[in-house]
Each structure stands twice: as C-alpha cells, then as structure tokens.
Amino acid sequence: MRNRLMKVNKNIKLFINYFLGPLLFIWLAWSIYRQIKNQPGLEQAWHGIKESLGSPMLFNLIVVVLLMVVNWSIEAIKWRLSIKEIQKVSFFKALQAVLSGVSFAVSTPNRMGEYLGRVLYMNEGSRLKTISITIVGSISQLIITLTMGLIGLLLLKNGIIEQHLISGMWMNVILYGVVAVIVFLTLFYFRLSWLVKLVERLPGSQRFAYLVKALEDFNATLLLKLLSLSLLRFVVFIVQYYMLFLLFNVDILWWQTFWTVSVSFLVMAAIPTIAIAELAQRGKILIAIVSLYTANELGITLATASIWFINLIIPAVVGSLLILRIKKIMKGNKDYAKN
Q: Torsion-angle region of residue 253: left (phi > 0), alpha (psi -120 to 50) or beta?
C-alpha cells in the first residue's frame, strides 16, 4: 500500500513538473494573445503610445510603467507580511508569486485564480493555509476600494444625478448598500478570530480547521499595515490614470481624476467579470463617469486601454513565463522544507 502511494505521488509530481507547467504557459499565452487581438481601442492606444515616444510627454509613460512595478511590489510586500507566520519568503520570491498569480487571475472570474499561482511558491503543508491568508489581503484592498468609491459617490452625487446616469432613488440605495458592505467587511476583517472559533465549532471541522488557524496571527497592527499598503496601491492606480489622461489630452483636474476613477473602481468591484476581458466594461464605465468633466472620450478610452495593458497584461506575461519554472520552484520548496 505504501509503495502504491509513493508511486502515485511520484506520478503527480511528474505530471506537475513536466506537463502542467508548460501546459499552463501555453494556455495563458494563447488566452492573453487572443484577448489582446480582439480588444477594441488597443490599436489606437498603441498608436498613441508610439506617438508619445517622440514627445515631451514620454515622461508620463515612463512614470506609468515604473508605477506598475511599484504597484505589484507593494502587493508583494503585503503578501509577504501576511504569510510571515507560516513561511518566511524573500521580497523577490513574493514578487514572483504575485506575478504568477496574475497570470492565473486574468482568465478567472473576479481574479480568483491568483490564489493558485501564489500557493505554488509555498512549502508543502503550507499551501492550503495560504489561501485563507491571501483572501485577507484581498479584503483589505476591497475595503479601501469601496471606501474611496463611497466618498467619490458622495462628492459626485449631484453631477451623476443631473446627467441622468442614475436616478436619485437608486443612488441612495447604492450608497446605503455600499455603507452596509463596508461595515460588514470591516467588522469581519478586524474580527478574524471569530471565524476561526466558528469553524472550530462546526461538526467534523477538525479536518480543515487548520486552514483558517493561521488567521489568529493577524493582530490589529498587521491588519492596519495591510490596509495602509492597500491605500498606497490605490493611490498608485490613481496617479497612473492621471498621468495617462495628461498624455492623451484629457482635460481634467487631479482631484476630478481621483474621485471619478474611485467611483469606476467601486462599480467594477461590484460587477462579476474576467480580468482579461474587462477592458470594454471598464472603458464604458470610466467614460460615463469621467464625462462629467470632459468630452474627450477617445482620450479616456486610450488611457483605459493603456492601463489595462501595462498593469495587467505585461505582469501576466511575466507571470506566465515564471510558470515555466514550476519544477525548479517546487523542488526548491521541497529542499527548504527538509531543512
């Protein structure tokens, strides 16, 4: 029996090392290529970017690309802080895990696949625990997104109603609904120990209680750090949009950019979507809201397409290349666990 189990485990590892890694890379690369080819506005965006290479506004594009690195670096720091109690990883390894997660996330609803990409970088025995921990980081980002979006809705409420984007009644329904969700998520976020106790009381929970046990290590200080890093990521996103609005001649002030983009993030967070196919939706939503202050719909579309390509597609391509190293990653994790 033991020999049979050892043989099964060996076959599983061979499958992962020599078949799953290359297959995932091919599938992700093909998905990314197909979506890029079919997305509207990308050709115009690429043309606009090429034109900017010979203009003084080239600086804006460089800043946006550099901020993409900053953005995912902050996410890597968040994840590294989150998992430090179950496994310590270097910043570079955390960044690799985050980028690999992006490659999975782009073709799964609401980017749920990012958890699968990240757990590949964890030691055996810690991988499933990482999922619940990673969800906590996602909740911190969602709280910031909803909170800033709520403030944006309050500030832009009159303009949105006057432009007949939504009726006053539905605006109030949305505002109260968002407040309720924020309150619920915040209470849940700062009382993770309640979840652990609840799971432990469930019949037959001994088999999977260990999956959420690590959440007890999340004290208020750590949770506030994650929220602060999430807020910093949010600001990075806003600055990227503002720099691209300037690049594509969208005449809008920085504070208008901040709150209109915040509202668009709120709307996108409420709509189930697949990240790699969300460009059209994101563009329509942003045009509707930013048009409160400017009529340059083409510039808004170009900025949205550029953000989508720089912030999502480039990291996804890098992450898919890292998937090819899955054999080396898993071997390194196994050696580390032995030590």
A: beta
